[in-house]
Design goal:
With 361 residues, the chain is an alpha/beta fold. It is 42% helix and 14% strand. The chain contains 14 helices and 13 strands. A seven-stranded parallel β-sheet has the order 3-2-1-4-5-6-7, with helices on both faces. Strands 10-9-8-11-12-13 form a six-stranded parallel β-sheet. α1 crosses α7, α1 packs across α14 and α7 crosses α11. The structure holds uridine-diphosphate-N-acetylglucosamine. Uridine-diphosphate-N-acetylglucosamine binds next to α1, α5 and α10.
């Protein structure tokens, strides 16, 4: 069997880490196409090295641009690659512009398409990720869903026959990395000056267009983080750094300590050492849950609704509109006492993906 994986952004590289490991030694041919959507080495090359992913077989070098220009450039560059490879499966991941470009190139060449992380929905049609995931699901021949909730969404859209629940490959990588980090005992993340790993601190990330692109919205969120009573370690995504500069906003204010984007292992170590997480990232909400740290999500909705059970994750779209004491106590709350459920699988999803691709070819 020949499978071509199409990736381009940091969260896709984490998922690819699990899939590439599952393919290694199977005798199947697994080719990797990197669209180049993320080109900063801290968002891309570092993850290949760290997660032991073979170098991409094709690098399209597309880079940034408006949604249309970026997606169109990827589509044009993907066509000849897929035409030459003619794999048994084209595998696309998640919900980015690289995902929809890969999906369109595959279906238009009548190549079987599988979508990993199918069936997630935020029901927020203003999010580019929502358009990408809905359209990709409806293009794909095989829908590899992480959760029961995702399976229900697919069934409601008439896609049940093409859907298989495999579990979540991010759980595979998260548990593997957690075990490596804790192997020597306590997690010891590299922390910025002034942040003591033995005292409470929070880890925050912000990168979604809906939070970064409007200056007033971004200023309100940074103000809310700055006002917290414990240090807030903020690994700044390039989009956040670029938008803050464009809007004339300083990120390192009050409680906020800015660091560059972290390698995956350091992020996991930081979350394990922290009191909790503040984020608008889907992946990090789930990682906080898997690592048993409370998460406060700076959005009005989440695709990972299972994390909301028992208050492991709480949605706070407008911290600036909240009573100050309530915001501070929500963000610094301790982990719930209840045992966490296991909706995201057992850490063996990637092997199931390979088996399901074999069975359905
Ligand atoms: C993309 C995905 C988002 C995912 C995120 C993870 C889409 C629509 N969005 O968002 O779902 O959660 O990746 O990180 O596909 N930039 C750099 N260097 C890079 C990449 C980006 O400086 O390597 C800056 C540029 O200013 C660029 C901006 O970030 O214009 C946005 O990058 P883009 O790839 O369009 O989307 P992300 O915000 O990274």
């Amino acid at each position: 069997m020949k499978v071509v994986s199409i990736v381009g952004t940091r969260p896709q590289l984490v998922k690819l880490g699990a899939i590439a490991r599952a393919f290694a030694g199977t005798g199947h041919t697994h080719r990797i196409v990197h669209t180049g959507q993320h080109y900063d080495s801290r968002l891309s090359d570092a993850f290949f090295a760290e997660l032991g992913i073979p170098a991409p077989d094709f690098h399209l070098g597309v880079g940034s641009g408006s949604h249309g220009a970026q997606t169109g450039a990827m589509l044009a560059a993907l066509d000849p690659v897929l035409e030459a490879e003619r794999p048994d499966w084209v595998l696309v991941y998640g919900d980015t512009n690289s995902t929809i470009a890969g999906a369109l190139s595959a279906v238009k060449q009548h190549l079987p398409l599988a979508h990993l992380e199918a069936g997630l929905r935020s029901f927020n049609r203003r999010m580019p990720e929502e358009h990408n995931r809905v359209m990709t699901d409806h293009c794909a021949d095989l829908l590899l869903a992480p959760t029961e909730e995702a399976m229900r969404h697919l069934a409601r859209e008439g896609l049940a026959e093409r859907a298989v629940r495999v579990g979540d490959v991010m759980t595979d990588v998260c548990f593997h990395t957690r075990d490596a980090v804790l192997d020597g005992g306590r997690a010891r993340p590299p922390l910025p000056d002034g942040v003591d790993a033995a005292a409470p601190f929070l880890v925050a990330t912000l990168h979604r267009a809906e939070n970064t692109d409007d200056p007033d919205r971004l200023a309100a969120l940074i103000g809310a983080l700055a006002d917290l009573p414990v240090p807030v370690v903020l690994p700044a995504h390039p989009r956040l750094a670029a938008k803050a500069e464009e809007h004339g906003l300083k990120l390192a204010v009050g409680a906020v300590a800015v660091v560059p984007p972290l390698p995956y292992r350091d992020l996991v170590a930081a979350v394990l050492a922290s009191r909790g997480v503040l984020t608008d990232s889907g992946g990090l909400q789930k990682e906080a849950f898997l690592l048993e740290r409370p998460c406060t999500t700076l959005r009005a909705e989440t695709e990972w609704v299972e994390t909301l059970d028992d208050g492991w994750n709480v949605l706070v779209p407008h911290p600036e509109g909240m009573d100050r004491a309530q915001w501070r106590s929500t963000a610094t709350r301790p982990a719930p006492r209840s045992a966490r459920t296991e909706p995201y699988g057992d850490g063996r999803a990637a092997r199931r993906v390979v088996s399901v691709l074999e069975e359905h070819r």
